[in-house]
Amino acid sequence: MRPMRSISLTGSLSAALLTVSGAAAQNIGTNYCTAVPNSTGVIAAITASGSTVVQVNNVTLECADLPLNSSGFFLVSRDQGFVVNPGGSTGNLCLGGSIGRYSLWVLNAGGTGQVSLAIDLMTIPHPTTPFAVIPGDTLNFQYWHRDGAPGGGATSNLSEGLEVGFSGGPPMRSWSQDVYPLLTAVNSTGFSCVGCHGGTCNLDLATASSAYTNMVNVTSSCCAPDVFVVPGDAFSSLLYTKIVAPTCGGQMPAVGSFPGNPDMIRDWINAGAPNN
Predict the structure, then answer these.
(1) Could you read off the pLDDT of 51-64 as tens digits, one per residue?
(2) Residue 261 burial (C-beta neighbours within 10 Å; 0-12, 13-18, 19+)
(3) What pTM, to 2 d.p., does this model score?
(4) How far apart are CA 258 and CA 210, in angstroms?
(5) What's the pLDDT score for residue 200?
(6) CATH architecture of 26-165
(7) Does the CA dihedral 109-115-120-121 come out positive or negative?
(8) What is the C-alpha separation between 62 and 212, in angstroms, rounded?
């Protein structure tokens, strides 16, 4: 694809930042700024989904109501601003300060008028050097896109702004190195989770792969409608509550104490239960 012509993106700083919170697998961020309708007759609507927890590193930017088959890319800045018709655009720039461009990921709205981009919080574009998001950071996003000019010809436009605040989360734990070994460990009485669950309650813990597949977002046949692992919510996850405070049946393991620190399981689940 041929690179898009660059435009001048400068503006004044606005300190009106809002507090935004979020969790895994949900819409995140708050829209701000007045956008100008594009040639579709409505404004380009920018949204984001994923998690505001930095360690989870799961954010997808989306923009809808774009002119069909139009190309464009996302912009990002720590600062907000307001500039009318930047670089000859018919829209409003809602970012200020140093503005990074996701220009290596030029997107096309195709026949749906929508685009999306999964971003890496460890490498945020910046005019000089990319940076990593840390807890407490707030980033502002906008989408710049090609558009048709009134009366014919080509121009460009911008979506409304989207502000996302990021937070810290529980320590990141590894499924393969921290959590699954606890399920195979034998306690002082000779009991282990994997020793009892080779299919009991539709839970097969024989291997790390089967255990993950049989627990994450899977309902227990013994404690329905409870789910073994609810990513992001340890206290709704049977894997954790059966060890520390069961709400269905007895405490696990059936004999003796759990041979490890259940906080590792809690932290892993609350961080989104990654298969890492």
Answers:
(1) 898 988 899 999 99
(2) exposed
(3) 0.61
(4) 21
(5) 82
(6) Sandwich (2.60)
(7) positive
(8) 30
